[in-house]
Automatic annotation (TrEMBL):
Residues 44-191 form the HhH-GPD domain. It catalyses: 2'-deoxyribonucleotide-(2'-deoxyribose 5'-phosphate)-2'-deoxyribonucleotide-DNA = a 3'-end 2'-deoxyribonucleotide-(2,3-dehydro-2,3-deoxyribose 5'-phosphate)-DNA + a 5'-end 5'-phospho-2'-deoxyribonucleoside-DNA + H(+). Its EC number is 4.2.99.18. InterPro entries: DNA_glycosylase, Endonuclease-III-like_CS2, Endonuclease3_FeS-loop_motif, Endouclease-III_FeS-bd_BS, HhH-GPD_domain, HhH_base_excis_C, HhH_motif, Nth. Coiled coil: none annotated. Binds 1 [4Fe-4S] cluster. Belongs to the Nth/MutY family. Keywords: 4Fe-4S, DNA damage, DNA repair, DNA-binding, Endonuclease, Glycosidase, Hydrolase, Iron, Iron-sulfur, Lyase, Metal-binding, Nuclease. This is Endonuclease III. Its cofactor is [4Fe-4S] cluster. The keyword Transmembrane helix does not apply.
Amino acid sequence: MQESQLARTRRARRVDRLLTERYPDARCELDFRNPLELLIATVLSAQTTDVRVNATTPEVFDRWPDAAAMAGADLRDLEDVLHPVGFYRAKAQAVVGIGAALVERFGGQVPRRLEDLVTLPGVGRKTANVVLGNAFGVPGIAVDTHVQRLSQRLGYTTSEDPVVIEAELGALLERREWTMASHRLIFHGRRTCFARRPACGACPVAALCPSAGIGETDPIKAAAMLKG
């Protein structure tokens, strides 16, 4: 039987409640002290781990603490510092470009509107929603690889388009939960619902998941797979 939108909404909210119980400490795992640091850290997190970004950003923010300093950074120096996070040349260009754009168009401050954030170099909707939700308290769904994978496995969407996924997931969840629901899905994707082989036998939402059983179903073996 095809699931109605109402039934899917109820299921999605039940899943989110169960993930809240499993991951009460779900949060943004990037270290930051202000909106600019979160913005830069999120841009640097592409194609690498939060752990590696967190090990790199203290030097970045110490040497280039504000938008003006970033705009005037020597590219070679910045590239050297960013080397551990990968794609360091493109990321260095993005950091300098973001600094310049913030100085030229936003008085050196990170804007509070998605429409403005996505005009910055290297900033898409995912990064903008991370900043809005975690630095400014504006609800947003950040569709990274984990959110995309889990939204598909849970039957919330069949789309591969992050913009479509963001809209369809947003329609299922209460707006006030968007930011934290994103964190909970990311935590679940990193700790239980792995890309290659999910730990289905130790999953708190297996009974509500149409993809349950695609991974390890033995409870003991599945529990041994869990991370974090």
